[in-house]
Amino acid sequence: MNDNNKYDKETKEDKEINNKISLEAIDKKMNTSKRSKSIKEALKINSEFYEQCSELNVILRPEDYTLYLNKFRDTSNIEDHYLGLVGLSKLSLLYNNYLSFNYNKPPIHIKYFAAALVLDFVKLLESNYEEIKLEALICLENITCCVYKEFYKFIINSIFTRGGIPKIINLVDSEITEIQTKVKIKINIK
Known about the structure:
Largest sheet: none
Structural class: mainly alpha
CATH superfamily: Leucine-rich Repeat Variant
Number of strands: 0
Number of domains: 1
Shape: globular
CATH topology: Leucine-rich Repeat Variant
């Protein structure tokens, strides 16, 4: 075995060890934080409405995008705002599923749609509503799961430049189990 291969192998092992150490630190921090509770125990919006939103079915149509974007932009009504957020989250997942089966470059409007909303989703990571924080994390996860490499890098850079990474890491301290799990998965994958 030549020295270059040995160095590369050691570097990979070092990265794995460092990743394991950081995940263990996150686990320890999560286990020493206050008692965790389910998102359903912390809901501030109506629980029946929350369940209806969870079961929301969306169709990949421009009019659905417009409908949920308008509801999302309405911050005067928390339920409409939340419904819009869930709708956009599910639409972004549908877009990524479509792209993964078609292996095409995302249409330019999808790229701008996702980039424009990244800032909104990052801001929502500091919401007073735990259900909104969780859905914002899901939105960010959905728009970063694109198979098209250039688009993925573009979105990750948008999250990074808008201060999303520290906000995601700060959510490790959340008392909500689902948020802790999403953050741990996000840190582990990325």
